[in-house]
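This is your field. Have a critical look at the following sequence-structure pair:

***
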Amino acid sequence: MADAGHVFYRSENGVWLTDHVPPQFIEFPHAHSAGSLSRAAKVVIAEHTLAACESGCYVNARHVAIDISAALEAAREGTTLHELGDSLEAPVPRSMSISVTAESTIDALIRLDGKGHVGCLNFASAKNPGGGFLGGAQAQEESLARSSGLYPCQITVPEHYERNRANHSCIYLDLAIYSPLVPFFRDDNGAWLDRPVLASVITCAAPNAGALRQQKKHDGERVETALRQRARLVLAIAAHYGIERLVLGAWGAGVFGNDPAMVAQAFKEHLEGAFAGAFDEVVFAIYGGKGANYDAFATAFPVK
């Protein structure tokens, strides 16, 4: 394996390296989906993503070194903690489309690249930046963290995680982190993108209804109130910062065990109310496309 101007060699764990840039993952199997990757493979991807963030560059599949240092530094510097009650600028109404798609958040971000200010909701862990991505866990936040500079942004606001840990409730707090134009440089399979895609990320944890049930502390009314308040906070942040195309999804309806119909209704209430026309486009990206999550959102937001 060789390329003009670069000398590549293979490390002991099979990763292609070059002396001309810091050690990076050059190739990763394209034949596997994110869901079929082993936990160990996801750990390796996470480690090399952090190495790319630390060095400020990565080598794409064309063996070209891509600089992400300026974009990542700007995203880190602009990362801000918000909470319910913050004064956020109201949106200017416009024509807005809403769709439900059978794609991942990352696929949606890549598809929307170049169409204005694109942003997404990160279905976050309340207590741990990046969720369990360093340990190879697989959920939406872990996928985002493995594929981008999100984690280095999250750790600049430890208050979000400290306050939720100190709260000792699986309802969690009405907090959210805004990270502007985070560089995304991997796809869902772990392959490097030819060039980074910039998308703003709103990190917000849904209440953990599943944990509340296990603790016999589930209160449907409190959970619904939290979902509605946080959905409003997410939309307010997105509108305040001028996001034009917003990728949402079945937030909290996976491992957190929330009713997808309740989540869909929380967003519907605001998107047809105070945030009607707040964005050019809202996409509910439901990975896989079949099942209760997709059906709940397709019912709430039917094709018109």
Observations:
- The domain at 78-300 is CATH 3.40.220.10 (Leucine Aminopeptidase, subunit E; domain 1).
- DSSP finds ten helices and twelve strands in the chain.
